[in-house]
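User: I'm writing a tutorial on reading structure tokens. Could you give me a worked example: one chain, its sequence, then its tokens, then a sentence or two explaining what the tokens reveal?
Assistant: Sure. Here is the example chain.
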Amino acid sequence: MSKVFDGVYCPSITITKTDGSIDYELWGRHLDHLVEAGIDGILVFGSIGEFYAFPLDVKKEAADFAIKRVAGRTNVLIGVGGTNPDEVTDFTRFATAAGADAVVAIAPYYFGPTDAAAKRYYAMVCEASGLPVILYNFPARTGMDLSPELVADLAKAHPRIVGIKDTVDTISHTRKMIAAVRAVNPDFSVFSGYDEYYMPNRIAGGNGVICGLTNARPEVFAQMNKAYLAKAYATAIDCARQINHLMAVYDHADLFVSAIKGAVKAEGLPICTDIHEPAVQLTDQQMGEIRNLLGD
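And here are its predicted structure tokens:
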């Protein structure tokens, strides 16, 4: 459990065909591109990977494919979260057996459970996992916030919990998270979930980002991370400025998943941009706006 997760991680889109089935040929090419660009890890079935939309048997098949395709070239994290505890623990055990590097577990959603319920839930995940566990805090979607105090308690109770993706649009929350968890585990990894927070996260003592635009421009993120670690701050800031400009991609779709799929297509991979229903699909006009933005 001593492994420290750090740097820039991509929550990969799950590329599908028009019938909704996974397009393994194009998805494999996408995973290869991420690895070759220098991304530190890939998250399969995060929010942008539409974890909520696929049945468990399909997710198992896809996770196995991704782990084998990446073949140890970078870290592979598997998002195991869901609202059915039996499926969550089943998928967690599967990810362990399949050879993932860690599992990522979003907080139980919809009911916005209490801290006591969250503690029961994460104890269940840890018991099922033979891998490091990374928490996923996304209160805008789950209805609950994994507070710094709660996360510190979880880290203290379960050494298997080694990190968190803190998808909260304020760096003060993440800064307080870092202070709270590092008092329990100095090696605890704290990632921000928003692309433009890499630099504030690092300044606060965090470990980087797990964010969507890495799907479209992984090279820029990898260069930024490499430059920051080398203290080549002018280069890192230049990359951060590029990312700040690209954040407008998210404004050109009804849902952020569509925006990222559109950006990947605009960058040259001929994917289907459809996302699972219920959804407002990306329009031709929005696709054109994304192309123009990426071309600026």
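What the tokens reveal: The radius of gyration is 18 Å. The first strand starts at residue 7 and ends at 11.
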